[in-house]
Amino acid sequence: MAARKRRTTTCTSCGETGPHRGHGYCFTCYARWVYHGRPADGPPLPYSAPRKPRTEAKQRTPVDYEARFWAKVEKTDGCWLWKRPSSRDGYGRYTAAGRSVGVHRFAYEICVGPIPDGLVIDHVCHNEDPNCAGGPDCLHRKCVNPAHLAAVTPGENALSGKSLWAANARKTHCPKGHPYTTENTAIREIGGTSHRFCRTCEKARNSGPSVPKPHCSKGHPYSEENTYRNPDGHRRCRTCRRDERRRRHIKARTAIATTPLDTARS
Fold first, then answer.
1. Residue 59: inside a domain
2. Domains identified in the chain, total number
3. Is 48 left (phi over 0), alpha (psi -120 to 50) or beta?
4. Which of 184, 180, 152 is CA-nearest to residue 168?
5. Binning pLDDT at 50, 70 and 90, where does residue 151 land?
6. CA-based radius of gyration for the chain
7. For the ranges 17-21, 80-84, 144-148, 237-241, which has the lowest average pLDDT?
8. What is the full DSSP assignment across the chain?
């Protein structure tokens, strides 16, 4: 098959006759035009489609976040419950103007006013219900009734709960009846947790004479014949030591009797 003969032309840039590349240019001038820009007396630029006129952006209708919020609430004679899904901890979430917030906090802000810094929202309906044990399944966490919400400090919110910690924190007297006053209360850290102790009870325990136990843990009396002392000074029961030695002796004899003869000789 015969090779296709390339068309020759006189270059409009350098004036030499040679193989045509495009726009009336030879290969050398066309490459210079591509990499260095179009010459002043060169051919017109390649065709480009005209751009469409820019349209004006449509005006968005402002969103009524309050109306959208109350449309997702079921109002009853008591609690006003959030009907949409809740988070793992049982509290509902609502997004308004790009800000995600708890539904009880949003309801308090639009009905009562801004929440002061450092305060949290407490559900009064939960505190007044003796049959509610709390937890993620508590329906009071979905309540958005402004009459059931109160802005309190985190400490007051914790003390009003129904957890074991809150029940102990609400106690005003120790088991012996002594008041937990500032002078009579000692706070100590045990295992990373703060515990309070009654100073009157501790003083009574430390000042009283220590009464020695009349019997050992097995019920044997600590008599003069049945008692001996270790090098560290602690009392020990002779009967218990005798029984322990007897158990060890019987265990050793049983192990020897059950051992095969070939194994014992080896």
1. no
2. 4
3. beta
4. 180
5. very high
6. 46
7. 17-21
8. -PPPPPPEEE-TTT--EEE--BTTB-HHHHHHHHHH---TTSPPPPP-PPPPPPPPPPPPPPP-HHHHHHTTEE--SS--EE-S-B-TTS-BEEEETTEEEEHHHHHHHHHT-PPPTT-EEEEHHHHT-TT---STT-GGGGB--GGGEEEE-HHHHHHTS-SHHHHHHT--B-TTS-B--STTEEEEEETTEEEEEEHHHHHHHHHSPPPPPSB-TTS-B--STTEEE-TTS-EEEHHHHHHHHHHHHHHHHHHHHTS-HHHHH-
117 and 139: one domain? yes
Residues 76 and 135 in one domain: yes
| Other C-beta atoms lying within 10 Å of the C-beta of residue 148 | 21
Which residues on neighbouring strands pair with residue 19, listed in sequence order? 8
Domain assignment present for 261: no
- Cα 112 to Cα 147: distance, rounded to the nearest angstrom: 9
* Residue 33 tokens, joined: 């035009």
Mean per-residue pLDDT for 34-60?
A: 64
How far apart are the C-alpha atoms of 144 and 211, rounded to whole Å?
61
pLDDT computed for residue 245 by the predictor = 92
* Same domain flag for 84 and 155: yes
| Burial zone of 32 (CB within 10 Å; 0-12 exposed, 13-18 middle, 19+ buried) | middle
Residue 73 to residue 81: CA distance in whole angstroms: 6
CATH number of the domain where residue 145 is located: 3.90.75
The residue segments making up the domain with residue 241 are 212-256
172: phi then psi, degrees, rounded to nearest 5: -105, -10
